Amino acid sequence: MTRLVYDGTFEGLLTAVFEIYDRKLGAVNIQKSGDTNIAMFEEVLNVTTDEYRATRVLNGLRDRLSANGVQRVYIAHLAGIVNEENNIIGFIRYAFDAKQNIEENYGNRYVQRVSEIVKMMRREKHRMEAFIRFQKLQDETYYAVIEPDFNVLPLLIRHFRNRYADQKWMIYDIKRNYGLYYDLHDTEFISMEFSDVDSAVNVAASFNGDEEVYRHLWKNYFKSVNIASRKNTKLHLRHIPKRYWKHLTEKI
Amino acid sequence: MNVDRITEKLNILADAAKYDVSCASSGSKRKNENKGLGNASNGICHSYTEDGRCVSLLKILLTNHCIYDCAYCVSRKSNDIKRAAFTVQEVIDLTINFYRRNYIEGLFLSSGIFKDADYTMERLVQVAKKLRTEHNFNGYIHLKSIPGASDELMREAGLYADRLSVNLEMPTEAGLKLLAPDKNRQDMIDPMDFLKKEIIQRTEEKKLFKKAPMFAPAGQSTQVIIGATPENDQQILQTANHFYKNFNLKRVYYSGYVPVLADTRLPGLNTQVPMVRENRLYQADWLMRFYGFNVNEIVNQQQPLLDLDIDPKLGWAIRNMHVFPIDINKADLKLILRVPGIGLLSAQKIVSARKFAQLNWENLKAIGVSVNRAKYFIVCKSSEFEKRDLTGTRIKQFILAESHSKYLKNTQTQLSIF
Questions:
Q1: Would the CB atoms of B100 and A210 count as touching at under 8 Å?
Q2: What is this model's ipTM?
Q3: DSSP string spanning B349-361?
């Protein structure tokens, strides 16, 4: 068993695949540097991310999978779930070793797992599209804080840029400490220095004049549309798990 | 802005609109091409109330003043409640400001009938028109089409709204006559028929001229109230089927009657909301629209009521044991869709995956099949399968015994005696 240590980037992962084939490695265990536990008697190979090698692997994947299939690999990696890389590598090796396109062979455990992670990512992305609550700040920027289970922020760009084309907005992932900012022309990733998490979340001091009014109206509306005689807490919690409540205007 | 007054209006007019259960914000394809605000595509539920229903649109009445006296409706003329009315501008401000904060997908605007149908419809259309033309708003708009409004207004509504709907209210004409003597079923069907023809014609035009304007791109829907009148499930589903087939409706909503008013013609105030029945009707509706079931296979003269204990798909399967077991590795997709415990996505995955290798129980479980249910109806690549010749009733008992549904508490204690 060879342990591969890579830098956590998608290019790094693809470079690792290149190394596996170049060195004709058998069983491997790939981990992000930082996530590693040192085991004895294990051969360790540090993968140096290399754009040329990564591109070759990517092109190889493009030959063997549909565009959608390649995207699934990308999204599964983007999720950033600890120690999931072995399954993704398993999927990629299976794709390279098979004669035909295997992306729909759900009987294979790697294909099944990648499809599961992609499903989890899509669900989380969809939840963010639903649960993000913007707060209008004094400079007319609409600001939202999120803490998604997986790293979905890059997948949100298209949706929010198409929808809110005529307002400045910012979505900040406080779990991963980076955000997305749209200035009416372009979107860019940004990172900010907050003194602590609370100062990123609690921005009431910078609210625009009518922000409190609409927060209040929305909370009232939310209460008014409930039908008490149909109360169904189990269903309610299934739709909005409690961990999302702290950033939902109507639930705080 | 007088915040207190707006708050009061919003409370009254949202409360009055909440019994309209339509919540869809999907099915449209309005893009944000003018660098304006919003788009409408696949539908998003932005929140859920404590009763577990989705909040997708700002759903309000323009006013709850009404000239009608329908027994089932909170806003009926003779009901002694607070009345209020929004101005057109107030509705627009609320919609835009809620939308910009990502609270909602758009607006659902209904209204009590004040003065007459045209006067009411004109104001609804005015809200939609202003949102589209003055505020570059491309979010979802659902308008009620008011029975009796002029064709001209209906046509204008279709140009600005994504979806239009008129509620049948009662599943049958007799039910409507009983509870809403001033209303006439034909008056509700006329606008539906008009819009259906208009939608067909506009879709043809759009095929020829790309620039032709969209017309109600998310189509029409309707709602029937369940449990206020004595119709059985067969009558309800036949009605739904009729409107799906003949009026190209996108959705029929079933609204379990919530007893809010004392009236000798209605169930008593302490009656439970028929939530399980409502749920079974939606399941049956899905079977008709997505699973290739004919309405008569779900309910018929011998079987006029849906079984409340089990879902209608399982109900059909145990009545038709001669169809099963089917071989998951060979059967047509159409047949796989009929197996209890296998949904749309799983069925498609099965058909894709079996091209590579025969599937076994473990594969099916990984794909997402509920094997506990499906195992009575299928065989796969495994020597293990249900070998006993079980009757439908027996299978129902087995499945209920394993089930954890909150509706089944009584059944479970009964079964544990064995």
A1: no
A2: 0.92
A3: HHHHHTTTS---H
